[in-house]
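Schema walkthrough. Field components (list of strings):
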Amino acid sequence: MRDPVLEIRGLRVDYGLGDAAVHAVRDVDLTLHRGEVLGLAGESGSGKSTLAYGLTRLLPPPGVVSGGEVIYHPVDGPPVDVLSLSPAQLRAFRWAEASIVFQGAMNSLNPVHKVSTQLLDVIRAHEPRSTAAGRLARARELLKLVGISADRLHSYPHQLSGGMRQRVMIAMALALEPQVVIMDEPTTALDVVMQRQILGQLAELRERLGFAVLFITHDLSLLVEFSDRIAIMYGGRIVEEAPAAELYRRALHPYTDGLLHSFPALRGPRRELTGIPGSPPDLRAMPTGCAFHPRCPRAFTPCDAELPPLGPPGDDDPRRAVACWLHSATAPAPR
Amino acid sequence: MTLSESAAAPVDEVVLEAVGLTKHFPVRKRLRDLFSRTPAVVHAVDDVSFALHRGRVTALVGESGSGKSTVARLLAQIYPRTAGDLRLHGTSTRVRGGRPFRSYVRRVQLILQDPFASLNPVHTVRYHLTRSLRIHGNAGRSAEDLEQALAKLLTRVSLTPPERYLDAFPHELSGGQRQRVAIARALGADPEVLLADEPVSMLDVSIRLGVLNLLQDLKERLNIAILYITHDIASARYFADETIVMYAGRMVEGGDSEIVTQNSAHPYTRLLTASAPDPERITGDGAGAGIDEAAGKDRGQGEPPSLISPPAGCRFHPRCPHAMRRCTADLPPRLTVGDRPGHWTACWLYDPATVAADAPGSAAPDADPAVPPPPALVKREDTATLGEAR
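Field assembly_structure (string):
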């Protein structure tokens, strides 16, 4: 197993303070290894975007990181806790070590500045001693990297198509060769043909540059194809974690199983699709025990009372983890 | 309330038919265009013809900008059409508001994509549904009639018990519940045709299926004709009886959903199916394996053409790896594919005379390698290519 580059331990994120706080992310443990693509899937409100913003300390108020730690392992040097960095250290850490491609990245370019201005700004801020010519050459190189001809460097965002803007955002995220790239629904607004091109390119770039990707999306079928490992979030917690192929072949958590049966398949036999009954939980009034039990077709005695821990399943496959009493190695305490 | 459960009319009867439907949007003139003869227009929809049958779902698949939503709005007569005809039960209709529009809308209802925007946030579910029932004359005579009709509507879209939802405001409901209210509102008119414009693409994956299954159920029980507009070709396969693929304002392929998705004929449809996420494609633990195989090196392209000055001939030819000289000049007609009845495509590759006279791929110097060759072509080449194609 490759060594970790980002370790999240017991991360908790709340919106609001005190008794009124809504717990959006609850005790999440997640490890991103060097050079891997970790997919994070879940429905809206499951806390996946909050997790991404929490671990990069980009969370706007009233979001508060109320506990846990995020350990970043630089290529050389001792590990650092991102959550306790000083503002100056954080400024140096962001973008150079971990960059983020935002949801709806098409609209995150500044419309009144040229692409070149925005791209050069990143490099100038982090490498103040670089020369203007050197920065320009680097910007051209970056655009070429993502498949845009260098003469588009001086275009304004509105002169580029949605797919090209998305590529510019990816180029910008890679500008300082970070170790970690967080992608929050990077292709949701794009058409399938464009989506596949961009993801193909990303896979190629990752091969060459060796960065790790935390890929957040609600499209599980895309993740199965694209990522090495997948973590499924539900109600602010990770409920299952497994290598992508394993997860697809044999989903352990009933929620994962439900998600996988929510996608009509394009090939293969036409199967009856069931979906998941009910609606996502209300974060203000989470069910007791397992958050999924009111919608779970296989809920039994301990589910509504006791929270299942995230651990290896009964058959003890060390690469997998699931939080479900059906597969727990340790039987719940009798009531 | 007259939602008839029993089908009085024969199944498969054509309810609404579009014949050569065309919509051009004028482009704002610049000073230098003042003296030009032909005004610039966006060719949003060109020559679209299809029929909606009672108790059947027809899917319209295409990328954003392909004109599929414009077709829905033309069918709902929100936009006046530029050319072509719209026939409701065989009689040509053109309504421009007022009473005729209302009586048309009573029979043809539109469901929009975003249930967060299509319901008024300051009004309750009861208000939305009552309005629909009253306007279309289904509210009955007394208050009890209305109450019964409301309860029936909500039960029909599986929002039970109705009392729990009747006095709720839209913000108190989840996305899936809101879309169900929007569907109930459309059903309040007791329509014959439902035009569903991306009804599930704003919803969470786990609830999409519930809404699709609801529409399926309505189709079967109420015998409604449904036009399902989507960009997700896999859901068209699952949900629709017939699928039509649009590209840059024109229909390029149509036929039985299973055949169109499994044995796609047009190079564009094949590109679309090859690009759709497919978990079955995982070949190992390596990330992204399988992605590159279909994505190819198609850089900077992959975009539909400008609709103000669309390419001559077939609109897909600038991206098509099999483009022939004829494709750049002549518009391909609808050609029947193979021996499958009802499966047609607008592509010169399926015209043997053209293929014989013109080498496929001859007019595609910078071909889009993402497109796998269509079966018509594969048959003519040796078996080595055949193995590669599938």
